[in-house]
Structure formats: structure tokens, C-alpha cells
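= Protein in question =
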Amino acid sequence: RATAIAQAVQERQVLSLALTGRLRAFGTGDGGALYVLGAGAPPPTYTSAAHDAGASARFGLLTLRSTGAISLDTRSGNTAEPDKGWSPWRAAQPRGAALGGAQRLTPRCPPGRYFQYRLRWPGASQAIVREVRLHFTASNQTPIIKELVVGEIGSGKTPVQKPSWLAGQSTAAPTEVKISWKAEDPDGDALVYRLWFRALGDVTWRRLGDDPVLTATQAKWKTDSLADGWYEVRLDASDESSNGAGRLQKSEKISPPVLVDHGKPEVVGLRVAYPMVSGLARDRFSRITGVAYSLDGKLWRQVDPLDGVWDEEAERFDFRISPAPRPGGHTLLLRVFDEAGNARIVKQAFRVP
């Protein structure tokens, strides 16, 4: 129940066969042609498909298992369809016998992404080819870092988590910043990571965290010992665990500037002239995001900035205490927040006539 191709032609219809006499031939339609078989026919050949190594590759030994005499040629190139840029066909060089009676040959073609071989049966050879196997090493490809997110930059929020400032009790920004990333390797190699940071404008990178090498895709950055200011975070991705020193590849990605701000905002020129309160809220690095007040430690109420938008590091406020308290002594609590999540509470006593 085996089949084989004896002759391949362009026409789609074989209409007549004459295979028993001295002249062996067959005729075709669509279009009409007569093909004579036998003496003078070229030796049979087989040309493989263009095999893809996935990347530019160096080709090693070929192993050929066959019975009888046969020739093997090879060529290589960098396009899926062979064209003028491919190397010419060259006969593979014999290298002796392998285990099991197979032949070893060296392909004589330059490195490339695609490889093709051709088998030629000389004369009246009845050789049967069982296997053609090629050994190769593809060039190691560079890891790809697709995303690096420090804090909540990726979600459009501030780099450091901001508390719910009216209801929150915290008066300091978080001292840990979450860092996460996405990376992939075109070869499927396992990746390891290293994190670094530096103050914006510095030339020296410092290691981030206690672990010199990471295999996870997230980490926490403790910022409580850092001076306030703008920083950059760098991620290195390497495939060193899957490749030798001469073949490993690595890539890096630097984050946008990230603000580290643990300094609390301040209130300057606070003036309570009942029923009006005014002053200036300011911070060295972060935008002022809110002011709230409480009368005698009761309900906190939000205050609007004088210009209507919390958009600067210094914002003036001017508001009326409401509802009107009873006559006598009272305490005004004022809470000021910055974008990093720091808050300062100031207290001032006043009297209602």
C-alpha cells in the first residue's frame, strides 16, 4: 500500500498510457503533450522545503541514512523563498560513517536562517533514503522588555499610593513602592532580572533590593532611607541561565522619572479671623491635592483652593467656617495633603464673640 511519484508534469490530466512496449510514454490533456519515459531521462532528484531555523544559524554535521549511492547538496539563505540572495548549491563534504551505518557530511553553505538540501540519484542507482538530519545552532536572540511599571504610573495614578485623604488617618506616604514588569524571550529561554536605581541626573546606578538576581516579575522598593527627589529605575533582563557566557543576551529598560517624597507639606501664614480662615499650603516636590478642616475635632470638611484647581506645589485657600459655632473658645484643625500621600495637621485656637 505504498505510493510513489514516477513522473510529475504541469498538465492536470493523464489521458493515455503506453508502458508495455519498447517505447514507454504517456499523453496528457489540458494542454496536450506526449512524454517519453526511459533512455535519456535525467537522473531523479528530490529538493526539500526551505527549513526555518527561527534565526540566523550556524550549520553543523548532516546525518544521511540511505541504501545505495546518492549525492547530497545544500544551500542557505535569509528569505523564506529561495532567491538570488541564497548561496549556490554545493555538494556536502563526506566526513565518514556514523553509528548504525549512517553517513556524516559537512554542509558547505554559510550561516543563514533558512536551509535547503537536494538529493540526486546517480546513474541507475536504486538508493532508498531513510533519513536526513541536520544539526545547527541558531543565534541567541535578545530578551524583550515590554513594560516596566513603578508604583501606579501604569494606571494613571501617582507613583506612590495616595490615601483616601478625607477619611484616611495616615499622615505619611507609603515607604514601599511596587515595581512590576513584563518581558519575554524570542527563543523561549528562562530569564533572570536585576533592578537598579539612581537619582535623576546621577551617573551611578545602585542595586535595588536585597536580592542580586530575581526570577519573579515584581519587587518592592523601600524608599524610606532615600532623600526626597526624582529617581529612575532600571530593569536588566538576561537569558544567562540558558546560555553560555559567549552567547548570552540581555536588554534593559529605564522607567520614567519617579518621585520619592516623604516630606510633609506645610501651612504658611495661617490666619483665623472668625468666620474667615486663610493661608498658603505648599510642598517642596509634590502638588498640593487637598485641604480639609475640622472644628473641635468633629466632622472633617473639604476646602477649595482659591484659584479653583489643585494643580501646583503652592495653593492659597480662603474659606468660611460653617456651620457657625457657639460663642466662646474653639480649636481649628487643618489637614493639608500632597500628591505623594503625605499630610500635615496644624492646630489653632480662636474665639467666637
